[in-house]
């Protein structure tokens, strides 16, 4: 009986195989053109397939944040790195997965952004032969792999209606090859032609003489552009975090500050040293000047668009977001950026582009004509705007002649407005209003600490909410100027609206219960801010900032988006409501290093160095990545917002003046180095913002749902 059933099943299978007719299948070789190595996109593709598999084959609403968790699971990354030992080479043989998925891409400089020449257009991707390449912003074509599903045995003759098959560095209209082989073809990208005429028509003649119906192959290439500030650049999330000196022997940093639960105060403790980065181990960014990284929600949104249809479409991404940018100084006017760069490292026209506004940078790269050295033209403003004490009735911008743009923008992502009202100065005002409650602190240090607070507030130009409200009154005029500056750009429209997505700023000031930090638990005023023993969340001031952000700035930005008929995305604000800067998962005690927000310190015990309360690099040598010792910069946490201690451990840079070598750092040097990026989303936070932005982009662009078969080319 069983033998008969087995025979019947085998006969049915052979009958199906015999009746299955061959068909043409194809996939684009480079779906996300911003990554120069296709293997880096394949990593994203495989991780997303795992996410879909975990959700029954469908993409959840949290698809980007779920993907982020998989990508930054060191166990998953370690297995992926084994697939290409040359690309992910490392002396430890594990690829350093604890440093995050973007680490190796940055190490290889495998982004289509050249920080030395300060633009994307010099990127040489999609090379398909000796000396043959395509431009980045406007590709002449895309390389695709064509094959037969259910191929027969023998030789097949491939034909195209124009030369497309790549063979020995040349393009041919006919190619004979084994029917099981994948054929590499070059498909022209001609977006100005009618849809029915785009691409290449391909047919196949089988060994028995049968000719398969011709199939038209055309790659849909979408241009995604991002402009904005630190909330879209990825501030606080470098591609390669700093390397903490394991000994951290700094004679001037021998003062640790620990939280005393019993008295709810900060205690001074003489120690060997606080954590300091190695002299040769700074954080590395895609763009150091702007603190732009691969973890930014702009890039993650563009990447997810590419993952929606990785077989038949491609994404060209242009990212310009810059930490510290305002509508005026940043988007419209020249801006030096968050961190100084050595002019000697700039090449070509890099020195000219170094401080250019984001709008000018975008215009240069989209224009057919070389306008980098052209004289800017005055854009008359309907209402004056002010910047650094100067009033502007017009702004100088580069112009591309009418009809000379290379291609239209399929989607523009915008995040701006926080710096225009003084986001960072307000936060510093919250942190420096008063000294934290201190126990047994030497009188001398009390005096020094107060002077340090004054200096920090002066350097950052701290101001209160009243000053922010004054600046808010100019915001409509600034956005009117931005809309006028964007008007000449070729931005597509859908359903009567320009394809522009503006995102609201997330709620960053709340704990795990949705309360303003410090209102419910006194330790929230100090945890995460104990570097130098001088910073402290002043709850009444933070409450004023919270009210301003949610009741005044948020509605103002929503109105600004409505005035431009832009898409306004704000669903992520509710997602952040229990994941602010002081949120912790306290379900287990003691709190793990993942959630611990106090800065560790190193001391000498029995003639040996030992770290308290945790080792900031323990996961580097713990192959099992046990959660209790997990201090990875991109480990999932309850909080999706960077605190000051995070910046101390993962970023550590000084923007003001010429910093001394880390071996000479004192407490103030470390405090200043830890102020560059707190109160910004973590990589996990950026992924949640990207969830919201992608959901809107999916509707605007009419994207298909990603599926496992397409991701794995099954």
UniProtKB/TrEMBL annotation:
Alphabetic keyword roster: Signal
Highest taxon listed in the record's lineage: Bacteria
GO molecular function: hydrolase activity, acting on ester bonds
SUPFAM superfamilies documented for this protein: SGNH hydrolase
Signal sequence segment: 1-20
Full protein name: SGNH/GDSL hydrolase family protein
Annotated organism of origin: Mesorhizobium denitrificans
Lineage: Bacteria, Pseudomonadati, Pseudomonadota, Alphaproteobacteria, Hyphomicrobiales
């Amino acid at each position: 009986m069983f033998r008969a059933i087995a025979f019947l099943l085998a006969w049915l299978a052979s009958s199906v195989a015999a009746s299955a007719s061959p068909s043409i299948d194809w996939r684009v070789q480079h779906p996300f053109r911003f990554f120069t190595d296709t293997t880096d996109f394949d990593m994203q593709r495989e991780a997303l397939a795992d996410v879909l598999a975990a959700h029954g084959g469908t993409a959840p609403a949290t698809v980007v944040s779920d993907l982020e968790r998989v990508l930054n699971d060191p166990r998953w990354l370690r297995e992926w790195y084994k697939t290409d030992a040359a690309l992910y080479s490392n002396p430890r043989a594990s690829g350093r997965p604890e440093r995050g998925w973007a680490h190796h891409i940055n190490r290889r400089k495998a982004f289509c952004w050249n920080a030395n020449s300060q633009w994307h257009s010099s990127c040489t991707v999609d090379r398909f032969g000796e000396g043959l390449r395509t431009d980045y912003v406007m590709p002449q074509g895309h390389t695709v792999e064509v094959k037969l599903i259910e191929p027969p045995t023998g030789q097949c003759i491939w034909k195209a209606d124009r030369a497309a098959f790549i063979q020995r560095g040349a393009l041919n209209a006919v190619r004979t090859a084994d029917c099981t082989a994948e054929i590499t073809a070059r498909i022209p990208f001609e977006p100005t032609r009618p849809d029915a005429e785009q691409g290449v028509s391909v047919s196949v003649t089988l060994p028995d003489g049968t000719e398969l119906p011709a199939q038209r192959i055309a790659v849909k290439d979408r241009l995604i552009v991002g402009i904005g500030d630190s909330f879209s650049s990825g501030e606080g999330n470098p591609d390669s975090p700093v390397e903490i000196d394991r000994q951290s022997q700094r004679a001037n940093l021998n003062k640790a500050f620990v939280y005393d639960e019993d008295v709810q105060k900060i205690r001074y403790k003489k120690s060997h040293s606080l954590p300091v980065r190695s002299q040769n181990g700074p954080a590395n960014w895609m763009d150091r000047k702007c603190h732009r990284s691969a973890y930014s929600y702009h890039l993650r949104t563009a990447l997810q668009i590419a993952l929606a249809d990785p077989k038949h479409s491609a994404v060209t991404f242009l990212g310009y977001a810059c930490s510290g940018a305002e509508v005026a100084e940043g988007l419209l006017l020249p801006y030096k950026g968050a961190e100084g760069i050595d002019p000697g490292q700039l090449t070509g026209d890099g020195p000219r582009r170094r401080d250019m506004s984001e709008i000018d940078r975008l215009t240069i790269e989209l224009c057919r004509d070389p306008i980098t050295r052209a004289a800017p033209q005055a854009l008359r403003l309907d209402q004056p705007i002010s910047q650094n004490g100067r009033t502007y009735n017009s702004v100088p911008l580069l112009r591309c002649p009418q009809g000379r743009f290379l291609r239209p923008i399929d989607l523009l992502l915008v995040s701006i407005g926080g710096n225009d009202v003084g986001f960072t100065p307000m936060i510093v005002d919250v942190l420096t209003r008063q000294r934290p409650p201190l126990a047994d602190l030497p009188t001398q240090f009390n005096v020094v600490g107060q002077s340090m607070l004054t200096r920090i507030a002066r350097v950052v130009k701290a101001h209160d909410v009243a000053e922010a409200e004054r600046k808010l009154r100019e915001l409509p005029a600034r956005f009117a100027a931005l809309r006028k500056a964007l008007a000449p750009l070729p931005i597509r429209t859908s359903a009567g609206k320009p394809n522009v997505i503006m995102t609201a700023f997330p709620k960053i000031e709340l704990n795990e219960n949705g309360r303003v930090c410090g209102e419910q638990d006194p330790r929230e005023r100090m945890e995460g801010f104990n570097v130098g023993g001088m910073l402290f969340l002043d709850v009444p001031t933070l409450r004023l900032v919270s009210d301003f952000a949610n009741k005044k700035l948020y509605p103002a930005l929503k109105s600004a988006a409505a005035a431009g008929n832009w898409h306004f995305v704000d669903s992520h604000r509710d997602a952040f409501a229990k994941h602010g800067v002081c949120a912790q998962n306290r379900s287990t005690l003691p709190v793990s290093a993942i959630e611990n927000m106090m800065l560790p310190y190193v001391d000498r015990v029995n003639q040996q160095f030992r770290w308290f309360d945790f080792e900031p690099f323990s996961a580097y040598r713990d192959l099992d990545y046990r959660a209790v010792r997990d201090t990875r910069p991109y480990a999932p946490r309850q909080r999706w917002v960077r605190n000051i201690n995070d910046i101390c451990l993962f970023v550590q840079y000084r923007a003001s003046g010429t910093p001394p070598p880390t071996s000479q750092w004192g407490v103030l040097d470390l405090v200043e180095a830890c102020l560059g990026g707190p109160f910004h989303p973590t990589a996990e936070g950026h992924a949640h913002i990207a969830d919201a932005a992608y959901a809107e982009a999916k509707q605007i662009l009419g994207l298909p749902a990603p599926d496992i078969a397409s991701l794995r080319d099954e």
